[in-house]
Request: fold
Amino acid sequence: MQTWVIYAIVSAVFAGLTSVLAKSGLKGISSDLGLSIRTAFVFILVSANVFFVGGFKNLGDLTKNNILFLAISGLTTSLSWIFYYKAMKDGEVSMVASIDKGSIIITILLSFLILKEPMTGKLLTGAAFILIGMLILVWK
Reply:
């Protein structure tokens, strides 16, 4: 198995834990305060990771485009997290997470349109199943 697949599986496990733990942590506080506390921990841990694995060695390779796209990505991540936490505060985690995973469809579409990644029948079939599964889970 390729290393990136292992990383993706580990990421999925932690992402699943994240939502349930966050919902538990939001009891009695606003979603904005909860997200702020979570984000502070994310910043500290990610910065420590970069420091300890030598990630700063590429600092001189940064371009304006790197910074621009990473900044915009940070903005979209922030907006996603703000609305995710607002939805999680009031909704069921399983439903909110299911709808949120609809972002996979958007990612596939944008990776085709912007990054020019290949659009295969297998990818389209998988995306259709994700969409159908999401609709089944959230349908009232």
Summary: Helices lie at 3-25, 31-52, 64-90, 93-100, 103-113, 121-138. Residues 101-140 form one domain. The CA atoms of residues 51 and 57 lie 10 Å apart.
